[in-house]
Structure formats: structure tokens, C-alpha cells
Amino acid sequence: MSRVLQKQREWGKMTGIVLAGGKSQRMGEGKASLKIGRKQVIELILEKLRVTFDNVLIVGNSNFIFPLSQVRVLADTILGKGPLGGIYTGLLNSKSEYNFFCACDMPFLNIDLLKFIISEIDGSDAVIPLVRGFIEPLHAIYSKRCLPAIKNCLESEDLRIKSFFSKVKCKYIPENKIKRYDPSLLSFLNLNTPETVELIKGLSPG
């Protein structure tokens, strides 16, 4: 049995959750609806998540059209709280103890890397990659045990995702381990500007 399957059996079923509540001000349109080749970004993300996780959810607005319409879309439980509020909503509504969260503009998710991150769960409340000297909180696993700490931050209007990290048990995955599965670190590429979209049109999402 692989280490990933052992972890999935140990920690129970897991859910992959896409945060799609951003306004995409720099893009001028919803990033989830952008196309790379013949597929929307949201479609590429959902395909990878459905292969890897038992359940898949989307948190945020639903003003985009995507072909996998059977995926449940959740409105934010507390409006106007940004990605941290999206994580809170996802954790509240998920039936899984552990949940993987990603942004809606990350079309190059790597299934092998996702499985590796799952295998690194060791009872921690959060499993978070470190890339280029920065944390990647929107390509990370969070446990429902994070809910009280997140709620406290939301109530105090401290909306930085990392604001609750000191209040829970976090495990950080170093870049050298991540590069074993994703040497170019494409998993963490965000489509933040039209220029970025043009740049990646020649790349294959896999």
C-alpha cells in the first residue's frame, strides 16, 4: 500500500476545495472562466482534484460556467472576508477532517505533488508548502481543528491567511522536497495578469 493510501485511510476521506471568490480586478474578468487551450481554468483544476480527493467543492461566486456542473458551489458563510473567509466556509461545510485548498487560478496542479503533500500529514492541523522563501497558503491542507483559530481572526478583522498559523500546529514542506515532484514549481503559478495568461498559453496543464 502506498504512503498516500495509508494516510488517506488513517485520516479518512479528504476534500479538495477551490476558492473562487476573488474579483479578478487585474484580469478584468473571472480567472476561473479563462481558457487554456480548449478548457477553462476551473475545469483543469477540478479534473486534478477529482482524481486525487474523495470530494470536491467550490467556495465563492458562481458567475462562471464550467462543464463539471455536479460540483457543489458554496456561498461564503461570512461575506467580505477574502480567502480566509473562504477557507472558513470550506472547512465548515466539508465532511472531511482534512481538506486541500487552492486558488481558482492555478491550472497546473500536479497530482504527484498533491499526493506527496497528503502523505506528509502527521497529525498536524495544517500542511503548507514553502516556495521561493514564501508560504503557499492557497495550495495547502487544513484540518477542521483550524476553525476556532480562523473564526477568532475573522472576528478581529485580521484577514491574512497566515494570521492563524501561530495558533495551530503547522507543518511546512520545504522547496527541495516539492521540487522532487514539480521541478519547475508550476503548481504555484497564478494567472494574476493578462500577461501571465499569454505567457502560459504554450504550456500544457498535463
Summarize the structure.
By secondary structure, the protein is an alpha/beta fold.
Description:
The chain is α/β, with parallel strands linked by helices and about 210 residues long. It has a single domain (about 5-200), classed as Spore Coat Polysaccharide Biosynthesis Protein SpsA, Chain A (Alpha-Beta Complex), CATH 3.90.550. The protein is about 30% helix and about 20% strand. It is built from 7 helices and 10 strands. The protein has helices spanning about 5-10, 40-50, 80-95, 110-120, 145-155, 175-180, 195-200, and strands at about 15-20, 35, 40, 55-60, 70-75, 100-105, 125-130, 135, 140-145, 170-175. A hairpin with a 2-residue loop joins strand 2 and strand 3 (about 40). Helix 1 packs across helix 4 (about 110-120) and helix 3 (about 80-95) packs antiparallel against helix 5. Mean pLDDT is about 85; it is low at about 25-30.
**Roughly what fraction of the amino acids lie in strands?**
15-25%
> What does the overall shape look like?
globular
Number of helices: 7
Instruction: Tell me the structural class.
Output: alpha/beta
**How many domain modules?**
1
Which stretches are poorly predicted, pLDDT < 50 over at least 5 residues? Answer: 24-29
